[in-house]
Amino acid sequence: MDLRVAAGEVLGLLGPSGSGKSTLLALVGGLLRPSAGKIFIGDQEITTLDASDLDRFQASRISLMLQGARRNLVPYLTVRGNIDFARRQALSLGSELLPVDGVLDLVGGAGFADARLDRLSFGQLQVAALAVALAPAPGVLLADEPTSALDHEARERILDALMRVNREQGTTVVVVTHDPEVAARLPRTVTIRDGRIGGEGRSGREYAVVTADGFVPLPVDVRAEVPPGTLLRIERVNGGYVFRPEILGHETGDSVTDRTRGP
After folding, report:
1. Is the CATH code 3.40.50.300 the one for domain 10-193?
2. Domain extent listing, the chain
3. Which residues contact 35 (CB under 8 A, 6 or more apart)?
4. 11-20: per-residue pLDDT in tens?
5. What predicted TM-score, i.e. pTM, was given to this entire model?
6. C-alpha count within 13 angstroms, C-beta hemisphere, residue 36
7. Beta bridge pairs of residue 196
8. Exposure pattern of 81-119 as b/e (b: 16+ CB <10 Å)?
């Protein structure tokens, strides 16, 4: 997989369960080490960092918001206590951070800053988890299903907070989602199928993506009509390209059908 995300961009990762979205997020976040390939955050290749250097890099540059709000929170601390805890390592490295109340204001969590976690709704827990992820002022925020199982109002609150963080802090945001309504609000989406980039969305339009090795995934609706093993002849026509599926005779190799798809 080859994927480039620009600094300050908001990107959604889409695709069916098991396609590799969460694994990709864990690789970029440094929780997993790739068996091959390279991962860069800015000009730093994080795959070359040892454990201690990676810890320091993560503390100041990357935050990973795991799926399931409670996985991101210390259960015996208040929301404020969780945010303060999440800031400590970045502060020890000299990072300039928003105060705790500033982080809460950014995500709309000021109303329950001193509440115990067992008194919060699921939507409020998600807001708290997002605040914790943003506490170290990361350059890159990776959020795995941040709106999962939320009602419409809570989902919009989380999305508004993510967009505000991107707009006001310049944070690069990468979001994994299954929700088409969430995807519709994101300026760019990438669909992953079978561990590859299977398509890309820009402003509501879907595109196939030519990979570095020349692989072009077919859109889902086309795959339903063109069975595996179909031979496609690619012809240049009027400055564009036409894909012509063919069925060849097994003995002679003669073409026995020629059905033209649109350009």
Report:
1. yes
2. 10-193, 226-258
3. none
4. 999 988 888 8
5. 0.83
6. 2
7. 193
8. bbbbebbeebeeeeeebbebeebbebbbbeebbeeebee
